[in-house]
């Protein structure tokens, strides 16, 4: 199982586990505040925006061109922004910490 | 022969050659921004391209002559926009709740059962308008019977037949809303009016005028758009029975299908902004005080973003469409709209084998040199 920690805007830290699908789905299943995943994961709505802890950026990796384009004009973009619907839940990201953008 | 449900892209040439298109609107011209990236960039830049202009002016066609009330949070700029938006955000996420979905399933199930018994159904008036009005009672959390009043208003609340803006018709809506607000002041309940009347912004209660602003937005934003999306979906599935089969066999694709249909139909052609300074889009000068149009329709057919942009690719996995707008002002009703389409598709899968188009009259809008098919003026079908 892959462990992922979400830190919400009210500073709650919640660690959840999963082994399939994408990070947005995992967050929605666990009712993580601020992750809505309105578009179901097609990179359109940006309601799954997270800031990756800098120490975990290597593990998570940079966004695709399309994802980066959508993030470029997002209100809350940072150097460590990702859309969590585009992040697969795999062993490679075990232990990462993600700050919910909203 | 072109399929009846197909919607072509009239903006391609202008998008590629100039990036903008010009149109007049009641002597208040609009420079339409056409490319996906430019549309997103301008939508993001709310300081230069404002929404908080004269009420009605960022709507195209402009409603300045028929409306004084400011729609909230839609016609307000940050930071005040964010204060209002925070007030209503949770309420507009209620469509995700299980009992909201169950109520919607019941409504749409009953409507589909009813049209299945008829030999011919005019989809806009006898299906989409009814579906939209009934669903709106859930969003307002008011009795189902209110939908009968809303259905009686017809498809347009600001327009009579044709496309002319109609002040008298708008007044029917405004008077109705004034009445409902007064009723909720007398007898507070759990409806949207009462919730808004009890809300506070910046440490004070919302004024009646502000409550009305939110309510007008809720009525007008989700009427033509949802009717359009539902009607176009019925037309699409009637001509693509295999798509309905595919979703029946692979229901996990329904979410992708919803986003793709919304991209392809793009029920709202564009939304305006007013420039606060002299600026430019694609080397085209925009003067302070003039309008641009964020053309969602054109952006959603941009081939640099979408492969086979003019086709419905039902399981399109990456689909950064802007049919619900983009940026801080993105559609407040999107959750409600998506839930309606989800329940509609699930209901069609369960109850309907095929849909036959008997006849259809296209609705074409003219935007300067561009002619865009929006959907239908009328479309008669038989549900089987």
From TrEMBL, chain A:
UniProt domain 2Fe-2S ferredoxin-type: residue ranges: 2-102
GO biological process: P450-containing electron transport chain
Family matches, as Gene3D superfamilies: 3.10.20.30
Organism, scientific name: Lutibacter agarilyticus
Protein name: Ferredoxin, 2Fe-2S
Pfam families reported for this sequence: Fer2
InterPro entries named among the record's database cross-references: 2Fe-2S_ferredoxin-like_sf, 2Fe-2S_ferredoxin-type, Adrenodoxin-like, Beta-grasp_dom_sf
Source species taxonomy: Bacteria, Pseudomonadati, Bacteroidota, Flavobacteriia, Flavobacteriales
Domain of life per record: Bacteria
Family under the similarity heading: Belongs to the adrenodoxin/putidaredoxin family.
MF-aspect GO terms: 2 iron, 2 sulfur cluster binding; electron transfer activity; metal ion binding
UniProtKB/TrEMBL annotation, chain B:
UniProt name for this protein: Cytochrome P450
The UniProt record lists the keyword Heme: yes
Database matches in Pfam families: p450
GO function terms (MF aspect): heme binding; iron ion binding; monooxygenase activity; oxidoreductase activity, acting on paired donors, with incorporation or reduction of molecular oxygen
Alphabetically ordered keywords of this record: Heme, Iron, Metal-binding, Monooxygenase, Oxidoreductase
Family: Belongs to the cytochrome P450 family.
Gene3D superfamilies to which the protein is assigned, alphabetical: Cytochrome P450
């Amino acid at each position: 199982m892959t462990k992922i920690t979400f830190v919400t805007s009210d500073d709650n830290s919640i660690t959840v586990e999963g082994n399939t699908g994408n990070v947005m789905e995992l967050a929605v299943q666990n009712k993580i505040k601020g992750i809505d995943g309105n578009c179901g994961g097609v990179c359109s709505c940006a309601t799954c925006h997270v800031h990756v802890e800098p120490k975990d950026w290597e593990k998570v990796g940079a966004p695709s061109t399309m994802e980066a384009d959508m993030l470029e004009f997002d209100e809350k973009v940072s150097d460590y922004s990702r859309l969590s619907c585009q992040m697969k839940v795999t062993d490679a990201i075990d232990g990462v910490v993600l700050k919910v953008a909203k | 022969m072109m399929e009846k449900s197909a919607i072509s892209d009239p903006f391609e040439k202008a998008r590629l050659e100039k990036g903008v298109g010009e149109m007049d609107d009641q002597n208040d011209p609009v420079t339409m921004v056409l490319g996906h990236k430019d549309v997103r960039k301008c939508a993001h830049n709310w300081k230069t391209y404002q929404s908080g202009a004269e009420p009605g002016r960022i709507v195209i066609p402009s409603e300045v002559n028929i409306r004084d009330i400011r729609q909230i949070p839609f016609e307000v700029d940050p930071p005040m926009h964010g204060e209002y938006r925070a007030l209503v955000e949770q309420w507009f996420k209620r469509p995700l709740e299980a009992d909201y979905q169950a109520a919607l399933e019941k409504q749409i199930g009953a409507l589909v059962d009813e049209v299945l018994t008829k030999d011919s159904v005019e989809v806009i008036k006898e299906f989409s308008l009814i579906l939209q009005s009934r669903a709106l009672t859930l969003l307002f959390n008011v009795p189902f019977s209110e939908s009968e009043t809303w259905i009686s208003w017809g498809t347009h609340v600001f327009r009579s037949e044709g496309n002319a803006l109609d002040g008298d018709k708008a007044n029917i809506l405004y008077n109705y809303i004034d009445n409902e607000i007064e009723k909720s002041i007398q007898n507070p309940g759990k409806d949207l009016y009462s919730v808004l009347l009890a809300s506070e912004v910046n440490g004070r209660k919302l004024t009646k005028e502000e409550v009305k602003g939110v309510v007008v937005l809720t009525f007008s934003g989700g009427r033509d758009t949802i009717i359009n999306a539902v009607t176009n979906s019925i037309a699409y599935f009637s001509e693509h029975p295999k798509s309905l089969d595919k979703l029946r066999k692979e229901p996990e694709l329904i979410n992708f299908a919803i986003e793709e249909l919304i991209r392809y139909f793009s029920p709202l052609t564009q939304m305006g902004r007013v420039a606060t300074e002299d600026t430019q889009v694609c080397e085209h000068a925009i003067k302070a005080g003039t309008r641009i149009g964020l053309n969602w329709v054109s952006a959603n057919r941009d081939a640099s973003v979408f492969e086979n942009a003019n086709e419905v690719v039902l399981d399109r996995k990456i689909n950064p469409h802007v049919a619900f707008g983009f940026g801080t002002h993105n559609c407040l009703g999107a959750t409600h709209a998506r839930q309606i389409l989800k329940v509609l598709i699930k209901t069609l899968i369960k109850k309907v084998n095929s849909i036959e188009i008997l006849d259809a009259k296209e609705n074409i809008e003219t935007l300067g040199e561009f002619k865009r098919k929006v959907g239908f003026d009328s479309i008669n079908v038989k549900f089987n």
